[in-house]
Amino acid sequence: MTLTGAVAVLYGPTASGKSDLAVTLAQRLNGVVINADSLQVYAELEILTARPDAAAMARAPHRLFGVLSAAQACSAAWWRDAALDEIAAAHAAGKHPILVGGTGLYLKTLMEGLSPVPAANEEARARATALYSEVGGDAFRAALAERDPVIAARLKSGDRQRLIRAWEVIESTGTPLSEWQALPKEPGHDLDFSLIGLMPPRDVLYARIDARFDAMLKHGALDEAARFEALGLSPTLPANKALGLPELRRHLKGEIGLDEATRLAQQMSRNYAKRQVTWFRHQRPFAKKSDGRHIRHAEFGELSERNLAEIIPIILPAG
Fold first, then answer.
1. What CATH number is given to the structural domain containing 204?
2. pLDDT greater than 70 at residue 318
């Protein structure tokens, strides 16, 4: 049976206020908040990923937050399947699903679907991983360019995870990943989406980012980074990309002082926010401002009671 119904999507850069808006809307619309952040899925990273705290969780039901171990690699495909399950469960319970997050690729994958790329082949991945370790990134990318020049041209030599995935696919299927990705995408559902973007002015956003990281440190971010370091996980796992984590780990190893780690973490977070804004500005359906059968779209620079009065009719249009 094809999944139908309304879904709200709250998107925007880090520290834009999405989580607060999601809880407020969930309370007013009998909603369920569903995570669409690729790092807030990890149980071990509550503070550094700005996961909703216990008080927020108590105000509204939350799903897909802290549900995976950092030893696992979350993917757009895994998240899409999990999100569709949570959307269906919300509808079945008579609640409104409210997706919130800044991982645009995940949201785009949910709305537009995936190309029919084969599932991971562990044996082929192990061989590709061993080869990458043996020859290094430059030689591995050059070898991949002979088999899949399109993908190789997109990737840098240091993009180990994606290079290995491309090699794994061609090894296990005989078909380049670029050809799989060129196949038509199918959403696999008939959902109606309301896209609500929060895009604060740059100076406001950057000030929030800096203040939030200072608050994270006061609430135990350094201890969280130390606990993560003690896990001894592979450096290639996605959880290692949590904002602020690399800089705090450098401090813990004695490479830099805490003030320098803080400065670098704040700078990296601001750079990331800038990339998020650019991505959303140029990617459909987020760049699409006109209404359509399955997409309603609006953006706001701040969260206010006045804006809430505009947002709610977009999510719940008359009729």
1. 3.40.50.300
2. no
HEC string of the chain? CCCEEEEEEEECCCCCCHHHHHHHHHHHHCEEEEECCCCCCECCCCCCCCCCCHHHHHHCCEECCCCECCCCCCCHHHHHHHHHHHHHHHHHCCCEEEEECCCHHHHHHHHHCECCCCCCCHHHHHHHHHHHHHHCHHHHHHHHHHHCHHHHHHCCCCCHHHHHHHHHHHHHHCCCHHHHHCCCCECCCEEEEEEEEECCCHHHHHHHHHHHHHHHHHCCHHHHHHHHHHCCCCCCCHHHHCCCHHHHHHHHCCCCCHHHHHHHHHHHHHHHHHHHHHHHHHCCCCCCCCCCCCEEEEEECCCCHHHHHHHHHHHCCCC
Say if residue 164 is in the same domain as residue 265: no
Q: Tell me: the pLDDT tens digits for 42-67?
A: 999 999 999 999 999 999 999 999 99
Structure confidence by residue, pLDDT tens digits, 245-277: 999 999 999 999 999 999 999 999 999 999 999
**21 and 91 part of one domain:** yes
Mean pLDDT for 149-158 is 94
Domain assignment of residue 160, yes or no: yes
Q: Is the pLDDT of residue 286 over 90?
A: no
The rounded percent of the chain whose pLDDT value lies above 70 is: 96
The answer on 301 and 219 residing in a single domain is: yes
Give the domain extent around 162.
122-181
Residues 257 and 158 in one domain: no
